Amino acid sequence: MTSTDPAADLALDALRRLERFRPTDPAQAALAAEYVAFVQGRAAARSDAARPDSARPDAARQGVARADAVRREGGPQHLTASCFVLSPDLSRVLLCFHRKGQFWVQVGGHVEPGDATLADAAYREAREESGLVGLSPFEPDGEGPQADPAPPVDVHRHDLAAAFGSCRTHWDVGFVAFADPVVRTTVSDESEDVAWFAVDDLPVGTPPDFPERLATVLGEVRHRRRAHAPR
Using 50, 70 and 90 to split pLDDT, how confident is the model at 65? Predict the structure, then answer.
């Protein structure tokens, strides 16, 4: 049933996708479980994790999806959506040089009121930040009108510097889309540059954990491709 609060519907979509996320990487699986708890309200902040159930909000005890989990103004910790734009052969990745962060990273950002799902937010951000309109979402197990929402390929929780304002922690949820590296890209006002790079030759200035994160994403994509390949 659709609620009167679009953020509540989007939070429920996020919860369903996260519950369906079965990554091959054990660390990703453990972190995904924390994401589910966060969206349900059982861990509204990491510092609240030790609080007894009786001290937590009613929504947490009911196990529902919290609308504030996806709202930028819902608190200093909230979900964001990002998109790893890859070439179809997985040899190249599109990165933007983030203006605030001053690092090369995948495209993505906050959920906005017009986003119907968390995946929609990720693909919208990808189009806005790259100028690419012909993106092909990677949803091998989420196609068709009766399909369950496709799970993400990556979760990554990170604390933020003061330059990011009131945001303290982003619980980022990563999706994948494919694009042709020869198609022209454009730079948004949130970035200083956008460029394609070989996945095994990333530029100086990526976050320290980004190469490992990208490798995990590529491994997840390959695993799902094998799992859904025609027999």
Answer: very high
* Alpha carbon distance 39, 14 (integer Å): 8
pLDDT of 1 reads 47
Read off the pLDDT of residues 95-121 as tens digits, 9 standing for 90 and up: 999 877 788 999 999 999 899 999 999
Task: Give the list of residues 6+ apart from residue 169 with CB closer than 8 angstroms, or none.
Answer: 45, 46, 76, 77, 157, 158, 159, 160
pLDDT band (50, 70, 90) for residue 149: confident
Helix axes 26-40, 6-20, angle to 10 degrees: 150
Cα(59)–Cα(49) distance, rounded to whole angstroms? 15
